[in-house]
Amino acid sequence: MTIITRESRRKSLGKPRLEKAPEHVAIIMDGNGRWARQRGLPRSAGHRQGTENLRRIVRAAAEFGVRIMTIYAFSTENWSRPRREVMLLMRILETVIDRELQELDEEGVQIRHIGELDGIESRLARKVAEACEYTRDNQRLILNVAFNYGGRDEIVNAVQNIVRAGIAPEDITEATINSYMYTSDLPDPDLIIRTSGESRLSNFLIWQGAYSEIYTTETYWPDFGRGAFYEALVEYGNRRRRFGKTDDQIDADASNYARVRERTI
Ligand code: FPP
Fold first, then answer.
1. Pocket lining: 34 vs ligand 1, CB cutoff 6 Å
2. What is the mean pLDDT of each run of 10 residues along the chain (265 residues)?
3. 184/171 Cα distance (integer angstroms)
4. Which CATH class for the 17-264 domain?
5. Residue nearest (by alpha carbon) to ligand 1 atom 11
6. Which residue is closest in CA terms to ligand 1's atom 22?
7. 21 close to ligand 1 (CB < 6 Angstrom)
8. What is the edge-to-edge ordering of all strands in the sheet holding 191-194?
9. Which residues contact 3 (CB under 8 A, 6 or more apart)?
10. The overall pTM is greater than 0.85
11. Which residues are identified as catalytic?
12. Extents of the domains making up the chain
């Protein structure tokens, strides 16, 4: 009998184990429209192909050891797109829930929604809430779907709720604000990936992304497959995160950590 472990599965798919996988990866899935235009296809074909790619990347993320993934599926600004395209993106989310929920659940994916359900058609809003509830105990990968999400909106909501809670100004710290964000129980993203050659955050996780590493690529989202995703994670592993410190401080922290670890093992 062959026992398929996560290790052997990785090996069989030809990707060496990552030394340092980011715990939380956020993705701005950009370039669906240009991907379609390049092929003389309607924008809807780009979104459909982008959805196919999302399936691949969610599975790859779990396989590569990523624990949390946040995807930007529909921003508060996307309402200004042509009505047909807005409707299509709503339908896509509904179809993804209808067709994929069972399999995602079996694969241990916990679906969460970040953003406002208010303003979304009630049937879809109910499906989103049910998908979150159905998968709430899964632990392999947390998939945050940012839908009708805006980073500034999120901060405005947080401030309103802090005021409503009657918290005194002098008691408000970063931790207080963090505890009112949609992602309050999650670590900040280690890595934010944006496809299609753009280098902006576009109102995505603007609070949580303060120290995230940013990776951009010219590749359009539908073509950003498993191999490209793996490359992004490898590059992340080669970066040195300083959180405002100097290189010397980081070196000292690393050797202190190694000393403490040696003593405690
Ligand atoms: C940006 O490409 C992409 C979006 C606004 C939507 C992203 C949606 C998907 C990948 C499909 C999966 C969706 C859900 C709801 C699960 P763009 O249209 O701005 O491309 P362009 O900049 O080339 O025009």
1. yes
2. 44 69 97 98 97 97 96 98 97 97 97 96 97 98 98 98 98 98 98 97 98 98 98 92 72 65 57
3. 18
4. alpha beta
5. 51
6. 31
7. no
8. 109-114, 141-149, 68-75, 24-28, 191-194, 213-216
9. none
10. yes
11. 30, 78
12. 17-264
